[in-house]
Amino acid sequence: MAKTQPQPKHNSCTKFVFMITFACVVGLACIINLASSFSLYSTYLSITSNWVSHKPPFVIVPKIREDPEISNKIGDVVLKKKKGHTSDSKRHLSATFADLPAPDLAWEQMPSAPVPRLDGSSIQINNLFYVISGYGTLDYVHSHVDVFNFTDNTWCARIDAPKYMANSHLGVASDGRFIYVVSGQYGPQCRSPTFVTYVLDTHTRQWLDFPPLPAPRQHSDFRYAPATQLWRGRLHVMGGSKENRHTPGLEHWSIAVKHGKALEKNWRHEIPIPRGGPHSRACVVVDDRLFVIGGQEGDFMAKPGSPIFKCSRRNEVVYEDVYMLEGDMKEWKVLAPIPKPNSHIECSWVIVNNSIIITGGTTEKHPVNNRMILVGEVFQFHLDSLTWSVIGKLPYRVKTTLAAFWDGYLYFTSGQRDRGPDNPQPMKVVGEMWRAKINV
Ligand SMILES: *[C@@H]1O[C@H](CO)[C@@H](O)[C@H](O)[C@H]1NC(C)=O
Ligand SMILES: *[C@@H]1O[C@H](CO)[C@@H](O)[C@H](O)[C@H]1NC(C)=O
Predict the structure, then answer these.
(1) Which of 37, 87, 337, 421 has its CA 20 to 30 A from that of 141?
(2) pLDDT tens figures, 422-433
(3) Closest CA relative to residue 4, chosen from 345, 272, 262, 228
């Protein structure tokens, strides 16, 4: 059994110093913000209550999905603009967040997960799907793994997580038996990340300890939603954001692993990732190449001085970047961008027929009302041509959904879904499971 516990003394000291620094920085930022742009500040205020609010929004996003004509017009406008014509800036902006034209898939609803979850993680090992922790609500986080069996389509097991394991925004990777759970956020609302890392042996269903991430100073690093993957016998961890949940980290570490154990004492520094950021990137290894897809800079963070670390939304930049490492890992290659900026997709991908399939996510905020906009498309990245296509629509737009592939079917479960076909803003946290046959 896992024995590691974060040292509370060190923890609270770090937290205290951090809170003071943080309060100063945020105070200054607010003043600058107020002085330079009142409208930006008021947007921030109105958004803070938006995340899990079930109230209808004040501003309704245009019904782009309902009208394919609008999408076509947007395409025209963008094209004309490229040729040097002036155009309506509102329409041009619209192209970022609008639904893309996509074929329908025949979705079939399957048994829901035992609990709804947001910002959870998942690992598929053959016919078993391990769905890990996450938020139930902003004030309640899970601390267990639910297991789905694709052979008989049932939720067949529950495994409790170690007491001090993070509850959301984990970095996860698996070798087909052991599941590595790196860092992540400990506790509800917008609490800080933890530095502890654990390994689940799926054969014995026991948790093992693992060396925490290194840090420049004497103590261990905290990382929130880092991109994590196993590659060439080493566990790679990169990016994510730092203690305050918001500041992007560019670090990239690796450590040799075998059978759930570290083979080295220390993590090794690898080539830093070109863009940092918490959350939400798909990190995939296939054919001895490592891909990092999408992501964002900035995220919700704790309201200064809030005793419960209440989440408040900050400026986020969602990106469409796709990077690849291969060969001697000397440089990141920049590949074709995703068809739209996309984040909250860390466990929303599967590998099928020499391609990476990605389900849902979040894209750039609405350019006018600044609301968070969810993604409802299924994207395919072709590993031979390194190009993208849009291969389908989900039954609804959803972020941090957990994807799997079994016997010709694309599955997804959990996440936070939209407010309806006409409104791509986030609303309900779900545990629903869906599947559709795909042909790619
Ligand atoms: C999954 O379901 C199949 C068919 O019912 C069963 O044979 C198998 O033991 C199940 N696996 C687990 C781990 O429950
Ligand atoms: C994968 O490719 C094979 C061979 O072309 C095809 O028969 C199969 O249907 C494809 N699978 C999916 C899920 O598209």
Answers:
(1) 421
(2) 999 999 999 999
(3) 262
Q: How far apart are CA 310 and CA 432, in angstroms?
A: 27
Range with lowest mean pLDDT among 38-52, 86-100, 331-345: 38-52
What pLDDT is attached to residue 72?
A: 30
Q: Output the CA–CA distances (angstroms, integers) from residue 174 to 204, 253, 257, in the order listed.
A: 15, 17, 11
Cα–Cα distance measured from residue 105 to residue 393, given in angstroms and rounded to the nearest whole number: 6
Tens digit of each residue's pLDDT (9 = 90 or more) over 297-331: 888 888 888 999 999 888 888 999 999 999 999 99
Q: Coil, strand or helix: which one is 198? A: strand
User: Measuring from atom 9 of ligand 2, which residue has the nearest CA?
Assistant: 439
**Any bridge partners for residue 403, and if so which?**
412
Beta carbons of 292 and 281 less than 8 angstroms apart: yes
Q: Are 325 and 318 in contact (CB under 8 A)?
A: no
For the chain, give percent helix, strand, coil, nearest 5. 15, 40, 45
Tokens representing 110? 């399957």
- Ligand 1 proximal residues by C-beta, below 6 Å: 128, 149, 151-152, 156
Q: 38 or 353, which is more confident? A: 353
Alpha-carbon distance of 79 to 87, in angstroms, equals 10
Q: What is the dihedral of CA 167, 173, 174, 178, to 10 degrees?
A: -40
> Tell me, what amino acid is at 333?
K
Q: 431: which 2 tokens?
A: 């545990």
Distance CA 396, CA 374 (A): 9
Inter-residue contact 234 to 213 (CB < 8 Å)? no
CA of 203, nearest ligand number: 1
Give the chain's domains with CATH numbers: 8-54+99-437 (2.120.10.80), 68-97 (no CATH)
Ligand 1 mean position, distance from CA 152 (Å): 7
Residue 352 alpha carbon, nearest atom of ligand 2: 13
Please work out, in degrees rounded to the nearest 5, the angle formed at the alpha carbon of residue 172 by the alpha carbons of 309 and 251: 75
What is the distance between the alpha carbons of residues 391 and 439, in angstroms, rounded to a whole number?
A: 9
Pocket of ligand 2 (CB under 6 A): 352-353, 408, 438-440
- Burial level of 311, CB count in 10 A (0-12/13-18/19+)? buried
Show the tokens assigned to 49.
Answer: 């209550």
What are the structure tokens assigned to 374, written together? 């969810």
DSSP per-residue codes, 86-103? ---HHHHHHHHHSPPP--
